[in-house]
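QA checklist item 7 of 12: single-chain prediction sanity check.
[x] sequence parsed
[x] length recorded as 188
[x] structure emitted
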Amino acid sequence: MEGFREMSQRELVGDTFTYTTLIQGFFQADDCDHAQMVFKKMESDGVPPSIVTYNILLDGLCKNWKLEKALAGNVEDGWDLFCTLNLKGVKPNVVTYTTMISGFCRKGLKNEAGALFNKMKEDGPLPNSDTYNTLIRAHLRDGDRAASAELIREMWSCGFVGDASTFGLVTDMLFDGRLDKSFLEMLS
């Protein structure tokens, strides 16, 4: 924070990379408020955020439980930010969508995650294996085997495979009897 204050006192304006790095650092230090402050300063200084900046901001907001406030209409938080990206001339990419889907899943908002997943498939970009694995894990954790199986089949038909954490979750659930071995076969 001291370096940022010194930069501001000397009236130095960083570039997109500088601000993005500062935002990421504050989120890594669990300092959501300062990360948002740096983002606001970036905008007020006229420095254009990149899609990487927005992805870091959205990821930090979702991981710091700011998604719920965002759903209540707080402009500084994740959902509203995501919804305004197109207005800012920034097209959300697969990381942007997957970050928001993951945030919804962490909050137990599977319907919202599913709706965003469907919008992603309709409007682009196409989901990747991370997107599928995020949704599969959320459905498995909630005991929704049918939705998990459907997503696994869809993921497989798109040429994607399960990742280590998905395999780990399936293995744990096979071991304790919540799943049958057909799930493991679907992932291989």
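[x] summary fact logged: Residues 69-76 have pLDDT under 50 and may be disordered.
[ ] second reviewer sign-off
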